[in-house]
Amino acid sequence: MKNYYIIDFDSTFTQVEALDELARISLKKHPQRDEIYKKIEDLTNAAMEGKLSFRESLTGRVQLLDATREHLDLLVKHLKKKVSASFSRNKTFFKKHADDVLIVSGGFKEFITPVVLDYHIKKENIYANTFVFNDEGKIIGYDDSNPLSQEGGKVKLLKELQLPGDIYGIGDGHSDFQLKEFGMIKKFFAYTENIERKTVAAKADHVTPSFDEFLYLNNLPRAISYPKNRILCLLIGDVSEQAIQILKRDGFSIRHKQSFEEKYVADAGMIILANGEIITDDQLQRAAKLKTIGYLGNSRNKFSHELCTKQGIVVFDDTKNNPRNTEFIPKRVASFINNGDTYLSCNFPNLQLPKVDNAHRLIHIHQNVPGIMAKINQVFAKNNINIVSQFLMTNSFIGYAITDVNTEYDKQILKELKQIEHTVKFRILY
Q1: Where is the ACT domain (predicted)?
Q2: Distance between CA atoms of 123 and 50, rounded to whole angstroms?
Q3: 222 in a domain, yes or no?
Q4: What is the pTM of this model?
Q5: Looking at residue 158, what DSSP letter applies?
Q6: Cβ atoms within 10 Å, residue 340
Q7: Cα→Cα distances 50→152, 155, 172, Å
Q8: Which domain holds residue 369?
Q9: Distance in angstroms (rounded) separating the CA atoms of residues 59 and 313
Q10: Does the residue 395 lie in any domain?
Q11: pLDDT tens digits, one per residue of 158-192
Q12: Does residue 105 sit in the same domain as residue 210?
């Protein structure tokens, strides 16, 4: 049985509601623009939460737009910059599954099509409403015979399509959930990267904070091996809101606490410590998932750098306590998680790495003993793996090896790499 993936557009594929953004463009000089914006937003939310019929909401919003074809051109340029981050980095999935992905939206083809075509989505797989224009190019309505302009429109459309396989739906609104409610899809994934509608999320088979999470759950091609929303980033003490927002925008799961609570020791993947905070050796030894620590000041004498090195934990700090560390430290920590960069680490061999396309990056941290690289490369050779690029740096305690390999390989090699004697930590970065 073939799988199909039904993806919503507004607040899912893109970060925003397109009609709301169109209103901001078309009404920019209108004396009552703020009042009209609010009415349009209220109509959008009422429909998405199931409090108002979609037809009523759509009619009300289109009537308030006062928009033209020229405004739509500006909107398309804007929307191309507002594609959700986790969709934007996963073009490989769309390319490999071009026949299986359908964009199904209550929005309009005039602005959806030029945005999603850049992602290998076929024009014939885009289902949305269409505007009606007058002779001067002004929007005066929409094609009300289109099932997607009606209440329950997505359900009606899928009944007409009769897709021969299992269907998975991804969206943020009530109309997306209706596909599961009426038995049209196998599973509904409530998408919350941009907005979480509690009434919708409560009914979903899964809540997916990113498209990476959806791809991970369904073992589909993805840009990163492990969703960042599953990496717990623990911020301890007086950490600035600026630092918090940098990491939150990057998609990490954020917990801000005043002390390193015992319940987080085993699960923290990243830690940001405010100046003056400490971690004990016992906590470090039990922090099995911890990959990196960022310290907003001088971390000497606050915790053991030597123990961190032996545990494979990369430390970044700012010994001069520079005001820039509120941005610098979280960005360095994120860069290590995202790209494997250890540049300016205070305890690890320094590597600043180029991003390599069409490859998987494997990070192998090991004790600095003779013969480890030979064993790593023996695993690749035995499994006929083509190495695209490879980097190695060492210090007195550990070796840090980065290998970029072609994307086609037997996953058995991952187990073999983890089982090499003297391995400290191993992960697939992307």
Answers
A1: 361-430
A2: 29
A3: no
A4: 0.84
A5: H
A6: 22
A7: 11, 15, 12
A8: 359-428
A9: 56
A10: yes
A11: 999 999 999 999 999 999 999 999 999 999 999 99
A12: yes
